Structure formats: C-alpha cells, structure tokens
Amino acid sequence: MARLTYATWVAAIGRHYRAILAASAVLTLASGLSLLRLRLDMDVLNMLPHGTPEFDDFKAFVGDFGQLDELYVLIDGAPPAELHRFVDALTPRLAALDTVVAAHGRIDGAQMLDGMLGTYLFNYIPEDGYRQIAERLTPEAIAQQVAADRAILSAPFDLSTARAIADDPLGFRRIAGQYLAESAGAGPTLDGGYFTSRDGTAVLMFVRPRSSAFDVAFSHRVLDQVRAAVAETARALDDHTTRVRLAGGYVFAVEDADTIRTDIHRYTVLALLGVLAIFYLGYGNLRILPFVTYPLIVTTLATFALSLLLYSSLNAVSLSFAAILYGLSIDSGVYFYSRLLDERRRSGGDVQRAVTATLAGLGRANIAASATTAGAFAVIGFSILSAIRQLGVLTAIGMVLTTLEFFTLYPALGFWIGAGRSGELRSHEMQRLAGWAEAARRRARAIRTALLIAGAACAVGALQVRLDPSLEAFRPGDSSARRVQDEIEARFTNASSGGAVLVRRPDVELALVDSERVAAAARGLRERGLLRSVQSVDAVLPSERTQRARLARFAELPRAEALRDLDTALRQQGFKPERFQGFFTAFAQPHTAIVRRGDPALQPLDFVLDHHMRDRNGQVIVATYLEPTDVATWPTIAAQLRSELAGLPIAIAARPLLEHALGRVLRRELLMFLVLAFVGNCLLLLAVLRNLRLAAAVLAPVALVVFGLFTGMWLTGVPVDPINLIVPPLLVGIGVDNGVYLAAAVRERGDVGAAVRVVGRAIAITSLTTIAGFGFLAFSTYPPLATMGRLMAIGLSLCLAGTFLVLPALLPAQRSET
Predict the structure, then answer these.
(1) CA-wise closest residue to 314 among 395, 248, 372
(2) What is the pTM assigned to this prediction?
(3) What tens digit of pLDDT does each residue of 492-539 get?
(4) Separation in Å, CA 445 to CA 448, 450, 451, 674, 803
(5) Is the pLDDT of residue 280 over 90?
(6) Which of 15, 552, 630, 777 has the highest Cβ tally under 10 A?
(7) How many CA atoms lie within 13 A of 792 on its CB side?
(8) CB 344 within 8 A of CB 351
(9) Which domains does the chain show, CATH number per domain?
C-alpha cells in the first residue's frame, strides 16, 4: 500500500515537474525581493523577555534615560586648560547642528549663583539648613562669622572672594551649596563647571540628537556632522594633541548595524561554501551541486520572507538561522541524491521507478529526522528571550519547508536531471566505518556498561556547570564603542553597579513629590550602609510643596534682629555696611517666588534636569539614581525600597537586578528545554520507529553527549549564557538524525555492517555539513554566538562518533525487510 501511494504521488509529480520547478523559481524570486523590506534590530534590550518588572523597568529606564538617545563626547590627551578651551569652542558648533537639540559642555557657575543661589537661595536650603541658619543668627554667631570674613579678606586679594563675602556675609549659600554637593552623589567632578574625570585628565560632553538612534541613517548623519565639527574645532585652535572619541547609543547603532551585516555575510557565505566543499570532497561530483544548492536557496529565501510576516525585524542572533539551515537542510539532498542514483542503477535507468523507490526507502526516516530537528528548534521557540525564540521559530519553519521539498521539489529535480547524464558518485561503501560498527556490535555488553558509568559521571559533572546571565552575552566582542563606553564609566561614574528608581505621574508636581519620598527612603538606606550614593532631582528642583515649606521657615527667622546685629558686627570689624546692601535687601524682604521647571535660573543645570526628568506620552518620569555599597545586593535594596514605599507605584531599574532575574530565566529555560527535547524526541521516535527499545537506543548516545558536553563546559570554565543555552536541545534534536537513518538501514538490511556500508558515507557527509553550518558561526564577532557554534560543532562531532561506535551496541536485533 505504501509503495502504491508513493507510486501514485511520484507519477503526478512526473507529469507536472516542470510546473513545480517554475513555481519554486517564482517563489524564490519573490522571496528574494522581499528581503528589501528586511529590517535589522540593533537594540540589545529587545532580545530580553517582556512582561516581567525587572526586564520591562530596565528597558523603559534605558529607553528614557539611557545611552539610546545620548551621544557622549570624551575629550582627553591635553592639559586641563587646553581641554577646557576645546570644549568651549566645540560646544556652540555642536549646538548649531541641525541634527542636535542641545550640547552640554559646561555648567555656568556664575549664572547658577545669580539664579538658584541668588534669587531662589532660600528655596534651596533644606530643613537641617534652616536649623543651622537659626543658630547663626544669634549676636555671638554673627560676630564670629564677620570676624571670619575679615580673616579671609586679609589673605592675598581675590575679587571673586570679596564679591562672595559681600553677597553672602553669613554663609547661607555655603549651606545650600553643601546640600547640592551631597545630593550630587558620585557623579562627575565639576572642575570650573566642566564635567571632569576623577583623575582630572579628561572632560565629558553630552549631546542630545533630534531623532532616535535606531534610525541608522540618521545615526550615520549625526556622527558625520559631529566628527566634522570636532575637526573644524581642532583646525581653528591649531590643536594637534587633544583626542576626541564618541560613545553612546548612536555609536552603538552604527557599529552594531555594520557588525551584523559583516557577520551575516561572512558566516553565511562561509557556511554555504563549506557544506558544498564537504559534499564534493565526500562524493567527488560537481554535477550534483545544483541539485543540493537550489533547494537550499529556496528554503532560506522563503523562510526569510515568512519572517517578515512574523517579526518586524531580526537581530544578530536570529539571523544566524540561515547559516544553520544550510548545514541542516542539505542533509535531505545528500540522502535523496545518493539513494536516487543507487535506485537508478537498480532500475536500469527508469527515472520514475528510481524516484518512487527513493521516496519509499527514505520517506519515513526523513520525516523522523526532520521532525526531531524541527522539534528541537520548536522547543527553543518557546523561549521568552526574543532572539532565541526567533532563531528557533525560523529554523523550525525552514526544516518544515525542507520536509515539504523532500516530497515535492526533490522528486521534480530527480525527473529534471534523470533524463541526462548526472555522473557517478564516488563509491558509497564505507568498509572501515562498517568494521568499527561491527566491532561495537560484538562488544555490546562492554560498551553498554561503559555507557552507564560515563552517563552517571557526566550527570554529576553537568550539575556543576555555571550560568552567566550577563548582558555582555548580547554584545560584539571587539567593539570600539564598548571600549570607549567602559572607559567613560570607569573614569566618570560607577554606572555598572548603579541603578534608578522611577516614578511616573501625569504632572510635574506629583512626580516631584513622589520622587522626594523615594529620595528620603534611599537616603535612609544610605545611612544604614546599603547605599554609597543617592542622586535625586530634589536638590535642583524641589517640589512646590517643599519650596513653600522652606519659605515658611524663612519667614519665621528673626531677620530684623539679625540684620541689626550684622550691621553692628560689620562696623566693629571695619566694614562699611552699605557695601553689603544687596544682602541686607534680599534677607529683609519676604520671599514667595517658586522656581519651576523651565525657569531661566535653572538653565545652567539643564543637563542635570534632563538626566533626572523626561516627558513621555503625557507623563512626567523622574529618576532617582542609586549606587549600592559593596556589602549590599540589588535584590535586597529593591525589597527594602518596595517595603518602605508600599503604596507608591515605583519602577526599579538596575542592570544587576536584571541579570539576577535573567539568571532565574536561564535556569528555568534550560530545564524546560532539556525536558521538552528529550520527551518530545522520544515521542517522535516512537511514532516513527514504532519500537520503544529502538527509540531508546537512538536517543541514548545523544543523551551521553549532552551531559558530557555540560561536564566539559564545567571543567573548562565555559558557562551557560543566554545564547549557548540552546545547545543542549539542539544536540538532542539534530543528534538523533544519524541514529534514525542508521536504524532504518539496519531494519531494511538486518545487519549493522551492511547498513553502514550503504548509508555510512551519507551519514558522515550530512553530519559534517551540519557541523560546518554551526562551526562557521565560530567566526562571529559576537562571542556567545561563536561559543555556541564551537559547542555545537564539538557536540555534533561526538554524536557522529557515537552513531558508529556506540549505537550499534545498543540497537536491538533486526530481521531484514528486503
């Protein structure tokens, strides 16, 4: 019945094979044109899960406040005075660019003194500061302060010092300034208003472009303009020593786009050439290359086209499916063509009989092998990591298309080439492999015992493998942008361990009030030794409620009495009170004005406000930045903040917190992948092979390889990361293919040696092409992708060895079906 069904199907293909080939050509052309709509996703964070606070909050924070819409300009290589001169000349050039909203190079300290610490001085003195002021307004304290002012002015003459004392003889600005400095946390040093590194050898500028960094064309444009402005500044100053480097989201976007394209071109072309070279070396027949390459191209382009229906964009990890698919789908062509020529010789040149016999002999094995491979990729398609999910879904789709091609396109190609001279394949008998398989069969008891012992040892070693949830797993290895970014973080901040607490409200006042609650709770944790620094916007822009409370405290001060005592003290120290008239007037009059966002007094600190406040979708978002001490962990800090701020909806974003959550995801997904891979493949093998013992025999060597690979990773210090997480289920799904074909051949011929002599070369060649498809990923500039390629190549090589050296000892005795 089966042969009759195959005969009917092949007869129909024989009548329409030209139409099938023409339709596949049209499909290939249309799919190729669809690639013009393919969009690359350079955002590393889009590869992370959705729907979990640790991930969603961090992605929202980076999107609103992070590097994604910021361009950093690192300037060093010259003395500080020269660096400052360069910044002063470069800032207006950058601000004038049509791609730039603002450029921050320096905070104007004089303007800040005249505004924030002048007009609005008493809005910025906190409750503790007013207690200090009350203590300073006694006659004794005033006299003591004026005497100190006289001593300061007795030093070498300094106009700026004289003005500062005239404007503030009682030191109120120092109280407010001290509070501002404490609230600045561990930010950059302000040397003369310039954002200076801790060692004083570099200066940092901040540029805000007008459009998103994910617009790669815009990113290229803004970087070209900024580099041109830098070159113009250097020429204008005749400066040949100052060094300028760029970092931030726009540099990453351009670099990642170039890296992805280079990566894809390199290992996709290498994989295609590699698998074809292996085929030629194995069979010595160039005439077959169109037979195996054309279906590869059809499958790959059709899968790319389908990806446009499923995903808006692909990333560096998911794009690697093309190279992987080359190594996997060529297997069908190898088995089909080699069997077709064998059947053609048997049938005396009858193409229809040869194609029918080929499908009848390989159909069930092909379905089993393709289904287990597609199932393995479908398993990882359940990952909550989008990059892994895309890779799994697209490769599974490619394998399903390959299976359909096996029963349609390959027979059509068989009719097309069957009438002509296709040449002979190099001898397909593998005497040496057959000898090894027969030796394994004779030593079945010893091999089974060794398998059990090795399996137990590897299972223990596999439990020791380490997880690496670092975000670096998603970054290219050799990245100049990453190096500059790391240098900025090391020289200016402690961003790698820091994080932020976010509040979102429909208006500024509510957001500021809530952020003050957050800052108060965070400062409490700082006093308890859990936080090293707290940076809050409340120091620069207090809420209206807080400002009114402070001004009410100002109104309660005994100002009239204090001014009389000050007048007396000034005269006693030889000062002329009229020189201090500005202070007398400002301190005597009532203060009710409130500083609000957008006030010209805040203009010198626009960068600071921008660092803490953003407007998104009708909401105001305020960030409070925290840096833990060495003894505190982010999960502990997050739990403490949520407990103390219960009822206040906050988002806590920190890279260590995200990586802690990612570690839980890796552990859970690794377990899920292994269970689904082994159970799913066992069920598939049972459905196809219809023999539990045979299914277990095919699966056992692969299981040993998986746990042995884990043990090797533990011994060599290679961790499981978010990318190579998929290696174990893929080894299970792909590794059983060889066993399926060998088991089918043994069932057909009743003898392991005879089966290996017939299918051994095909198994070896298809395994090597699959190894090449993964192995060329080792050339990727993404270290985890390269590691995944190496691990898969090692694992599949061990699976190939297990097929000939272990599986024959496990296969149950078979009677020939022929």
Answers:
(1) 395
(2) 0.73
(3) 765 556 789 999 999 999 999 999 999 999 999 999 999 988 888 888
(4) 5, 9, 10, 28, 17
(5) no
(6) 777
(7) 33
(8) yes
(9) 1-28+285-425 (1.20.1640.10), 108-192+543-594 (no CATH)
